[in-house]
Amino acid sequence: QKIWTPDPATKVKLLEYNSTVQLVFQATNIFVAENHPMHLHGYNFYVVGQGSGNYDPVKDPLKFNLVDPPQRNTVIAPVSGWVAIRFKADNPGMWFLHCHLDDHFTWGLNMVFLVKNGATPSSTIEPPPADLPAC
Fold it and tell me: What region holds the Plastocyanin-like domain (predicted)?
C-alpha cells in the first residue's frame, strides 16, 4: 500500500455557482494521532456522516444522514476516522478551508474554494470601484 503525502501548496478548487459540494476529511495517518478541527469560511455546511477507519465510498454513503444533519462551520476530523460534509456553493468569492491547528498549515491541511458568480445581480460579486488604488 502506498503512503500519500500532500504537495506543499495551498490549492484552489473552482466551483460552479449553486453546485453541491461533498468533502470527506480522512484523518487516518501514521505520524500524528490528533483530531483536526476543519473550518470553512463563508459557509455553514451539513455534517452528513462520520466513522472510524478508512472511508468506503461505496458502503459509507448508504449510512449518511440526509434527513436532519447538523449544520456547522467547523467539524472535527477524528483520529483514525473520517467525517463527510456537504454544502451548496451559493456564496460567490474565495473561501478558505483549513485545519484550525496552525501548525497543520505546513502539512497541507488548507485550501481555497473559488466560487463562480451566479446569473443574477444578488448572486454576483460587484466589481471593484474604478477609483480603487492598485496594490
Answer: 7-118
**What pTM did the predictor assign?**
0.86
Burial 67-94 (b: 16+ CB within 10 A, else e): eebeebeebbbbeebbbbbbbebebbee
Residues 85-105: pLDDT tens digits? 999 999 999 999 998 888 777
Cα atoms in the Cβ-side hemisphere of radius 13 Å centred on 128: 6
Provide the Cα torsion 103, 106, 109, 112; round to 10°: 120
Which grid cell sits at 102?
496552525
What are the structural domains, with CATH classification, of the chain? 12-120 (2.60.40.420)
pLDDT tens-digit map of 5-19: 666 666 899 999 999
Query: What does DSSP assign to residue 108?
Result: T
